[in-house]
Amino acid sequence: MYPNILRHPGPTPIPKKVQLAMNQDMISHRSEEFVQLYRETTERVKPLFGTNQDILLLPSGGTAALEAAAVNTVSPGEEVVVITIGAFGDYFVSICEKYGFHIHKLQKQWGEACSAEELAEFLKPLTNIKAVFATYNETSTGVLNPVDELAKVVHTQTDALFIVDGVSCIGGAPAEMDQWGIDILVTGSQKAMMLPPGLALVSVSDRAWKVIEENKTPSYYLNLLSYREWAEKGMTPNTPAVSLIMGLSAVCDLIEEEGGFSQTVARHELMKNMVREAMKALKISLLAAEEYASPTITAIRTPEGLNLGEFLAHLKKQYHLDFAGGLGPLQGEIFRFGHMGYCFPSDILQAVSLLEAGLQDFSYSFERGAGVLAAQKVFLQSVSR
Ligand SMILES: Cc1ncc(COP(=O)(O)O)c(C=O)c1O
To answer: What is the mean pLDDT of residues 88-117?
Structure first.
């Protein structure tokens, strides 16, 4: 009866308008209606990537898009750099290992970002790098890598492509793919894009297309050249996720209704600040430093003296508030508060209030209402501007 308050890093809540759009009668993916839907929608998504390049739509999860970016550009034995700052950087490592690339791994401690200086130093002795892979928003730690600065370093010091996983932030964080020099940017539907899982979005720079055209590694379903070829006709090589593309069109409407993508980005920034200030007021530590804190997900350290598993289970059972736990080495150490996509300042006030109720139930020592008040203060400052 009570709705689940899903404050996860994805899948995330789906707006009613998007649900209804996905509920339309099915159309053929080889019809004129589809061509129009495809052309209009992929055009409207471009500002979310900050690109004039085509947006290719794969009927897949984010992992397939990461794999497509890797397999289309690099051949076995070629050298790559993978920057990993958490669980999803490690995904890129695993993919590159599977395909037999020669990997130079730039490993950062979980909770930290990779700075431009660190990458510059790491690249110095490397002379034959084909691609540098990085995660924009590390979902396991709530850390945003400075991909704009990293791109500059890659292109100053190497001829490598710069390939970026934007799965958990595109649609909620600023992205200027063309201006920053990102060669391939990918995302998935189920996070800041306000859609169910099952659609991946990929954009490719001219420089990356040249590399892809010459790449010899075989791929079939994930072959980006065939996606490009079919995109010219306003279609996809195989049957696409038609309903999700209908939903994506409604997502574009909603972003327009909000006043354009810059407003959507500003809302995510505001929600990040509300959550962070609330936790500070509750004397609960945050994992990520201010400078690199994610606008879509906040990693929060386990409040002192609490059993995190029991606490999260209680929040869900008693208050229907659903947070995600930590991954890998951070399991039991942090929980993750998702604030992306169809999430608003009022949702943050609700979640912080219920979180406080749970803390009270677990006899955690804190000033009641302090978190809500702090979040509300950040919100009201933004309203009065
Ligand atoms: C940053 C990042 N990359 C990749 C993935 C994998 O995406 P999917 O689970 O859709 O395959 C995720 C999923 O959480 C993610 O957060």
So the answer is: 98
- Please report, as a single letter, which amino acid is at residue 374: A
Cβ atoms of 83 and 132 within 8 Å: the answer is: yes
**Ordered alpha helix ranges (H), 72-172:** 87-98, 116-123, 147-157
What are residue 170's DSSP bridge partners? 173
Ligand 1 centre and the CA of 163: distance in Å? 15
Q: Is the CB of 122 under 6 A from ligand 1?
A: no
Does residue 385 have a pLDDT over 70? no
Phi, psi of 131 (to 5 degrees): -155, 150
Please tell me if the CB atom of residue 53 comes closer than 6 angstroms to any atom of ligand 1.
no
Q: Which tokens go with 90?
A: 């490690």
Is 384's pLDDT higher than 80?
no
Which of 312, 347, 344 lies closest to 331, judged by CA?
312
Tokens linked to 257 = 């209704």
**Among 60, 91, 95, 244, residue to substitute to test ligand 1 (most atoms within 8 Å of Cβ):** 91
- Whole-number Å distance between alpha carbons of 248 and 25: 15
The response to whether residue 11 sits with its C-beta less than 6 Å from ligand 1 reads no
Counting from 1 in the atom list of ligand 1, the atom nearest the Cα of 64 is 11
Q: Output the residue whose Cα is nearest ligand 1's atom 2.
A: 167
Average model confidence (pLDDT) across the chain: 97
pLDDT digits (tens, 9 = 90+) for 237-292: 999 999 999 999 999 999 999 999 999 999 999 999 999 999 999 999 999 999 99
Contact 131, 80 (CB under 8 A): yes
Tokens of 311: 């606490």
Verify whether ligand 1 is closer than 6 Å to residue 166 (CB atom).
no
The secondary structure of the chain in percent helix, strand, coil, rounded to multiples of 5, reads 45, 15, 40
In ligand 1, the atom with minimum distance to the C-alpha of 10 is: 14
